Amino acid sequence: MEINGEQVNEKVAYAEMELSPAIMKALDKKGYVMATPVQAGAIPYFMQWKDVIAKAPTGTGKTFAFGIPMVEHIDPESDEVQALVLAPTRELAVQIQEELRDLCEFKEGVRTVCLYGGAPIDKQITTLKKHPQIVVATPGRLMDHMKRRTVRLDKVRTVVLDEADRMLDMGFVRDVTRILDQIKNRKNMGMFSATISREVMDISWVYQRDPVEITVRPVEESKPDITQYRIDLDGRDRKLETMVALIQNGGYERAIAFCNTKNMTDRLAGLLKMRDISCEAIHGDIQQRIREKTLDKFKRGEMKVLVATDVAARGLDIDDVDAVFNYDVPDELENYTHRIGRTGRAKRHGVAYTFVATITEGIRMDEIVRNTKAEVQRLKYDKDGCLMLVDQPEK
Q1: What is the structure's pLDDT at 251?
Q2: How many CB atoms lie within 10 A of CB 315?
């Protein structure tokens, strides 16, 4: 890990961080003892009300990195909104609220609310009337509440942009800046992201003051333990049978398959069901209520495969996904990283398979390997129909 460009390799236990008994009790309940690198780097500065910009791989504990000091700073006696977290997707916003609720479990009087589109706004207004001190929101829905004057942000002291790169890439720049412009009394601001784009730096330059820059590189212990495979196929029609064989022979109990389009997601889910593999699809056109129900079923282990577009690549905090299948090679480099980051979490071993069936997919996959410097093992069917390793991991 680097802090302001200087290498820092300290391992820190939560017990060394002078956290409150309430937070320590919440961490003990989850069985957490050691802080991840991004947490060890960010928490002390956040506790001092410093601005932070942190770059860390998916699945390395960024939510607790800002969540712990955020909850510590909340005054439970106050009915004002004191902290705001902005997230790019509904799934991520819901997940952040769940993690913050866990942290608040033993801190009496701290309330949270999650505001996102695709859900009844009246219910959210009712929850806001209970005076939550922490608001987690997607930018568009928060803007709706601000226009209705159902939420006030003038007392907010801490603002966090989570998955900042994704949020700005999705076109939320104007909403984000309008929201930030309304928060006149903030004491500190955090920006957390897997990649630091030019748009992220532009926001930082305008809205942060001498931010502490924290970089956690994938080569550290925090890097997920994921074995990556590229499977070269003779045609797209071989993808389904290959995936079915891998699921059945690999003994995978919980897997996510990613497709590039909504139509392909629905089609693949249907084909897997026809082969008696329990699965459901999730993408942007599916009603939020159904998406949440599907995710709950997947978390409870009631279905084997979740078929998803990249809308689900971020914000899913499911620690025991055995395998990820890139049924389609992703169009964007960053999406590959976020997709495979759904497995190999919580120090578990994971595996990721990417199916390459066309020249175009091969070119895209070569580019992903070259730019991510990932060690990807290549597999191919031999003349007897068995998958075999065709070369060693690329260095």
Answers
A1: 83
A2: 23
